Amino acid sequence: MATYYINADTGDDTTGDGSQGNPWLTMSKANSSSTSGDTIFCQNSTNTYIWETLTFGSNARNIIGQSTDGVVFDAGNIDIGDGWRFYSAFFEVRNITFTGINTTDVRNGGFYINQFGVGSVDFYNCIFHDNTPSSGQGGLFTCYSNNQAVNIDTISLNGCLFYNHHRNVFGRTGARFNIYLNNTTFYFNAITDLVVNITGGYGGTQAGIYCKNSIFANVQGNTISLNDAPNVSSRTTLSYCCTSGGFQYYTDTENNFIDTDPLLIDPDNNNYNLSPSSPCIDAGTLI
């Protein structure tokens, strides 16, 4: 297992060798040059990283940013058509900011996760802002699994932040796919005339959303649904979570559920930390 480096300022796909001192420029170069179990390390850069349509296939990778301030992938708010595609393996993405992702593809989004077998994609400490995914079945994350035999295909968001988000966060959630939202804040303040859904429930015979220690602040006035296509198997569980501003959700259990303003410090200036008087302080649980 090797570690390869990319840098949006000093990297070069022709003369670089992927080392820490001589990094490549693009994720596509690192993706094509690495294999299962390798780590792609994104160094802090003044320039934003190039957003590319990539297929990571079934070779597991760790994609690690040095910091969310210094590692920003910006799609430029042009129609990308498609984004990063993950298949049937275990991936970890950390410390990266993603912005400007815009697609009119009615099924795919910025991150397409199709697990035909066992697999998961886990995001840690990532920021997603000013993204406009499809208005159809797609979303920023499109999750689909054809595996009807087991129920272990997952995506998780851990310690992540969403703001200025338009349209679906998750879309086209397929059979036997579970979504875990842990210690994640959603600040829905974008102006849009569309319903904002956490999941589209496409074909979801066993789709589940499990939220823990997470905040859903709706300040835009539109309907936000935590699961807009419930059926006998679909379920949404909120444990030690906070919602405010109006939500529609279908849930099996609610533990220490707070339905009030989380009192963030200064979201207008991108400070989404809890104020000293927030009802969410000391209201969470260990994960």
Secondary structure: elements and pairs:
Elements: E1 3-6, H1 27-33, E2 38-42, E3 49-50, E4 54-57, E5 61-65, E6 72-74, E7 84-87, E8 90-94, E9 97-99, E10 111-114, E11 120-124, E12 127-129, E13 141-144, E14 153-158, E15 161-163, E16 170-171, E17 177-182, E18 185-188, E19 196-197, E20 208-212, E21 215-218, E22 224-225, E23 235-239, E24 242-244, E25 254-255, E26 258-259, E27 264-266, E28 271-274
Parallel strand pairs: 1-2, 2-5, 3-6, 4-7, 5-8, 6-9, 7-10, 8-11, 9-12, 10-13, 11-14, 12-15, 13-16, 14-17, 15-18, 17-20, 18-21, 19-22, 20-23, 21-24, 23-25, 24-26
Antiparallel strand pairs: 27-28
Describe the structure.
With 287 residues, the protein is mainly beta. The protein folds into 2 domains: 1-46, so0334 like fold; 51-274, Single-stranded right-handed beta-helix, Pectin lyase-like (Pectate Lyase C-like). It contains 1 helix and 28 strands. Strands 1-2-5-8-11-14-17-20-23-25 form a 10-stranded parallel sheet, covered by helices on one side. Strand 1, helix 1 and strand 2 form a beta-alpha-beta unit. It is globular and about 55 Å long. It starts with a strand and ends in a 13-residue tail after the last strand.
Distance between the termini: 29 Å
Share in helix? under 10%
Helix count equals 1
Count of the domains? 2
Quote the CATH topology of the largest domain: Pectate Lyase C-like
- CATH structural architecture of the largest domain: 3 Solenoid
Question: CATH top level of the largest domain?
Answer: Mainly Beta
For the largest beta-sheet, the strand count, sense and barrel status come to: 10 strands, parallel
**Hey, roughly how much beta strand do the residues contain?**
35-45%
Which regions contain 5 or more consecutive residues with pLDDT less than 50?
Answer: 199-204
Q: Give the tally of β-strands.
A: 28
Radius of gyration over alpha carbons? 18 Å
The gross shape turns out to be globular
